[in-house]
Write a sequence for this structure.
């Protein structure tokens, strides 16, 4: 027998209470791990995006208004020695819709030559780039979309467009992108789109956005101002922002789910702290006499402190486990990627999120046990024993 | 015979810390619950004002919203085949058809002091628009005039975005470099259209270099059924698509609904957790008072009276926690702002909502949390009712 | 088998309640030699339990001195007292105070967790202690499966398992019927006579006190009188 054993037996003393506490702890903890997963995933994506040093330049009024493709050359012209700019890639929203369905895939036409340079996180190998450059109908697809639609390299696919003039196009899948930040997007060659638009009698040389790969952070900051001021007072004024700010706009528009999740996570921590604290107070109150006996027998105060605190931590960890494990299994077996757009789709469990949840549970366990444990430490043996 | 309520009330104070912690758990859950109910109320309120069964929104075939629809004027002429079904303007005798164009303008949100922006829909219409959109009323200033650089703004967004007050100038146009004066504010009875800016059709089409309408909105004659007309619109001679106003906004609100379903699920889980927490508290209260209950049984109170008494205590806990939660949510909304805007499902423009703590929401929240309290207290109550008198009295 | 004497000099204990001084012990002198069995009697509030707590190092005196064997309690810190208690003192309470979720053997083993001791050695000592109190066959029973008398025997086993010098018992028979009390008291006699333990027992039952070699009467925090019983040692009775 060890002290740990004594501790475990104590939790069995009131199995009903331990169960109720564990469940009341586990349910919010399940929410917490999901919420924190989303937050962590988004932070990770935005961090990796920030390392990509990309600047987005779009129409000042709204991204829906398109800019002439000539802006690319003008932007490149701002840095003829290529000290600050690595490459500029013009993009146009295609909004590819799976035929005969309402499913719209995040799909963009991108400048073929600069796409592999600007999107290093697409992970294009030289062979991939060769395939991409060789076939005008080439497209690269994020693994999220590929898994959901069961597309693989070499497949011929057809998409309708959800935006005017609603062009139907055929594509050849040349690569599945494996990076988390590119999981739910598809890119194809803009020259293919322009040509198809022209043959449909529509002006094609327009872009929604230019992505500019910069040399370093100072270059990015200076380019941001240089680009916008060079187009100021022209018919096509621009607004440039880094990828983080650009994504934040979208997430806000989708109801700011990450913000909600953060708020939820805070509420949840409050709830579990109260639940655990409540139980520990009750448990301590009922047992103060027994703890006094421990002291009389000769257990040092700090060990009694440890026993009470240990019980609280154990209960919290147990509750956390039965909340976290099923949620994590659920999220892994039914990835939310299939629901398409950001930010729900980005809700992916990571070791970091699980670790954070366990850490929070531990912290709550410590916090909830601290006061009763302190009281146990200060417990007056004589008066506790006298209390009939 | 029942036990006096003051007995329950005082008992809550005997175990002060436990009571306080339980109340805080409930308050946290109800805080989120009431915010969510407020959002649901705002959404359904908004949609309920867009239920005009005789307003038909005609779009290009296969488009899902006005944002991604384009109807060239020559195609819209085909709609003259519907002249029999469309209501006539009593003054001019012309069929009530409103060709409209939708563009977006990115505007700074008031709630965060303009740090972030959202896409607001700008709708261009002719004067007929006001006759087709019957629920739209000018509540301040006047309507815009065709051919002038003038716009009016919806009541809801005028409160939520910076620079949308009467007399302000709004930069519009493809390059966003022409100032449009805000000459009026309109109400649509709370319908989603209140999240829009309206201006003269031709002026705006020129400003945005557009040569196609986004949609044509029809007012049907009362004699005709919307479904029949829709079938005709989608038929081989017209080859466009149409939705009633209710169908259209219902589809656009899909996003908001998904969002709210997620929140509802989370709140549901938290309510269950709260029920467990209440059960825990009540069980420990029952255990600590078993001799007291035995005494009450000996002097003649029934098991049922004791069970009811436990339930009442739980309801007290819940209601106090509930009120605290509602108050918390109210304060949160006051400080953090009551507005919430989200993209429509496929419009790429904002639907703005205003979340308020109405008495109805407080009532619903308290109702829900009372239920949670009763559920949580059920099994402890049964246990209290079944206490064996002799054994409990003998217990140390 | 160890045993110690107890010497108390001018012991004072004052409690404060709402800033009011409540003197409990007022300069008590008492000496108990090693291997003695002393009953402590007196009306409620006479300071019996307080004296017991002071000798056990659970409480500290306002003034005066308590020496148990070679230890001067007033010179020791609380941590030192705690550690000293685990080695030298065994407590027996009126309400037994067993841990309900542990078996008899585990309850007895509890104090041994404070010693660096092999698990096998611990088991051996637990077994010995429980055999001495006559519960060698009830090792795996939980407290709620035992009678009151048996519970108190487990508590006694817990008190002796560390082989303390002094056993302090606070109304050990207060909650038991006459027959069971007699058994428990005989057990204390056995510990005193066979194992030479110094025993100090608070009681207000004259029949219980009769088992002790000496009875000390307290009155208002003062030693009122001491009397020696003419009780024959158990060994002789047998």
């Amino acid at each position: 027998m060890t002290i740990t054993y004594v501790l475990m037996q104590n939790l069995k003393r009131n199995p009903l209470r331990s169960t109720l506490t564990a469940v009341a702890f586990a349910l919010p903890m399940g929410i917490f791990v999901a919420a924190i997963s989303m937050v962590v995933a988004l932070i990770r994506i935005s961090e990796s995006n920030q390392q990509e040093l990309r600047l987005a330049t779009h129409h000042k009024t709204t991204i829906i208004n398109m800019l002439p493709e000539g802006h690319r050359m003008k932007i490149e012209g701002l840095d003829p020695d290529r000290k600050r700019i690595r490459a500029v890639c013009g993009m146009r929203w295609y909004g590819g819709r799976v035929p005969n369905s309402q499913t719209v895939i995040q799909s963009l036409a991108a400048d073929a030559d600069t796409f592999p340079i600007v999107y290093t996180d697409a992970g294009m190998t030289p062979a991939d780039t060769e395939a991409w450059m060789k076939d005008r109908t080439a497209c690269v697809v994020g693994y999220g979309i590929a898994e959901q639609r069961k597309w693989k390299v070499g497949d011929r696919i057809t998409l309708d467009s959800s935006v005017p003039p609603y062009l139907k196009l055929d594509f050849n899948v040349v690569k599945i992108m494996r990076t988390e930040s590119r999981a739910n997007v598809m890119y194809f060659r803009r020259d293919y789109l322009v040509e198809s638009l022209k043959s449909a009698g529509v002006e094609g040389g327009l872009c929604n956005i230019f992505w500019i790969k910069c040399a370093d952070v100072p270059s990015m900051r200076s380019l941001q101002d240089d680009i916008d001021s060079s187009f100021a007072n022209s018919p096509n004024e621009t607004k440039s922002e880094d990828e983080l700010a650009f994504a934040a706009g979208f997430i806000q528009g989708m109801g700011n789910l990450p913000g909600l999740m953060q708020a939820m996570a805070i509420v949840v921590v409050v709830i579990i702290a109260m639940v655990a604290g409540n139980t520990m107070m009750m448990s301590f109150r009922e047992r103060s006499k027994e703890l006094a006996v421990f002291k009389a027998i000769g257990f040092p105060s700090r060990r009694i402190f440890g026993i009470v605190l240990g019980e609280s931590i154990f209960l919290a960890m147990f509750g956390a486990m039965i909340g976290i494990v099923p949620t994590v299994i659920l999220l892994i077996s039914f990835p939310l990627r299939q629901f398409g757009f950001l930010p729900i789709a980005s809700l992916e469990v990571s070791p970091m999120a699980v670790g954070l949840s366990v850490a929070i549970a531990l912290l709550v366990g410590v916090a909830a046990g601290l006061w009763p444990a302190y009281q146990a430490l200060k417990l007056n043996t004589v008066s506790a024993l006298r209390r009939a | 015979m029942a036990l006096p309520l003051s007995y329950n009330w005082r008992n809550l104070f005997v175990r002060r810390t436990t009571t306080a912690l339980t109340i805080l758990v409930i308050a946290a859950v109800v805080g989120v619950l009431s915010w969510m109910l407020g959002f649901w109320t705002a959404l359904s309120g908004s949609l309920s004002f867009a239920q005009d069964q005789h307003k038909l929104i005609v779009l290009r075939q296969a488009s899902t919203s006005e944002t991604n629809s384009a109807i060239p004027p020559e195609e819209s002429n085909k709609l003259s085949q519907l002249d029999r079904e469309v209501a006539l303007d009593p003054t001019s005798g012309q069929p009530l058809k409103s060709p409209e164009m939708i563009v977006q303008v990115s505007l700074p949100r008031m709630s965060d002091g303009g740090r972030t922006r959202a896409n607001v829909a700008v709708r261009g219409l002719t004067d007929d628009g006001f006759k087709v959109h019957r629920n739209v009323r000018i509540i301040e200033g006047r309507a815009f005039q065709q051919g002038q650089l003038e716009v009016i703004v919806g009541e809801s967004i005028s409160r939520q975005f910076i620079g949308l007050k009467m007399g302000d100038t709004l930069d519009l146009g493809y390059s966003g470099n022409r100032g449009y004066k805000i000459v009026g504010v309109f109400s649509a009875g709370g319908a989603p259209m209140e999240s829009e800016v309206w201006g003269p059709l031709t002026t705006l089409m020129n400003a945005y270099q557009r040569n196609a309408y986004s949609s044509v909105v029809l007012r049907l004659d009362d004699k005709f059924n919307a479904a029949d007309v829709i079938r005709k619109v989608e038929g081989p001679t017209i080859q466009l698509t149409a939705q009633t106003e209710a169908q259209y906004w219902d589809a656009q609100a899909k996003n908001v609904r998904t969002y709210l379903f997620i929140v509802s699920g989370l709140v549901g889980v938290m309510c269950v957790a709260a029920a467990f927490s209440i059960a825990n508290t009540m069980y420990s209260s029952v255990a600590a008072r078993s001799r007291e209950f035995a005494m009450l049984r000996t002097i003649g109170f029934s098991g049922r009276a004791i069970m009811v008494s436990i339930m009442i205590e739980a309801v007290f806990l819940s209601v106090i926690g509930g009120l605290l939660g509602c108050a918390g949510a109210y304060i949160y909304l006051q400080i953090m702002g009551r507005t919430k805007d989200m993209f429509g499902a496929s419009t790429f423009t904002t639907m703005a909502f205003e979340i308020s703590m109405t008495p109805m929401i407080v009532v619903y929240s308290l109702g829900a949390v009372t239920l949670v309290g009763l559920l949580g207290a059920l099994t402890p109550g049964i246990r209290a009712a079944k206490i064996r008198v002799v054994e409990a009295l003998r217990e140390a | 088998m160890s045993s110690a004497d107890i010497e108390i000099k001018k012991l004072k204990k004052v409690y404060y309640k709402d800033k009011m001084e409540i003197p409990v012990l007022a300069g008590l002198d008492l000496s108990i030699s090693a291997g003695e069995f002393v009953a402590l009697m007196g009306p409620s509030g006479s300071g019996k339990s307080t004296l017991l707590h002071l000798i056990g190092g659970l409480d500290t005196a306002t003034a005066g001195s308590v020496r148990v064997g070679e230890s001067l309690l007033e010179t020791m810190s609380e941590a030192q007292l705690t550690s000293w208690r685990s080695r030298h003192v065994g407590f027996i309470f009126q309400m037994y105070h067993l841990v309900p979720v542990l078996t008899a053997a585990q309850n007895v083993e509890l104090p041994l967790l404070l010693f660096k001791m092999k698990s096998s050695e611990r088991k051996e000592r637990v077994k010995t202690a429980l055999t001495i109190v006559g519960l060698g066959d009830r090792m795996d029973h939980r407290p709620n499966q035992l009678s009151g008398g048996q519970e108190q025997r487990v508590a006694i086993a817990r008190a002796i398992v560390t082989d303390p010098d002094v056993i302090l018992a606070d109304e050990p028979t207060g909650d038991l019927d006459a027959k069971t009390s007699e058994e428990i008291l005989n057990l204390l006699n056995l510990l005193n006579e066979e194992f030479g333990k110094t025993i100090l027992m608070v009681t207000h039952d004259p029949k219980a006190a009769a088992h002790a070699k000496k009875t000390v009467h307290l009155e208002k925090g003062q030693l009122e009188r001491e009397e020696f019983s003419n009780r024959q040692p158990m060994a002789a009775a047998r």
About this structure: Chain A has a mean pLDDT of 86. Residues 61-236 of chain A form one domain.
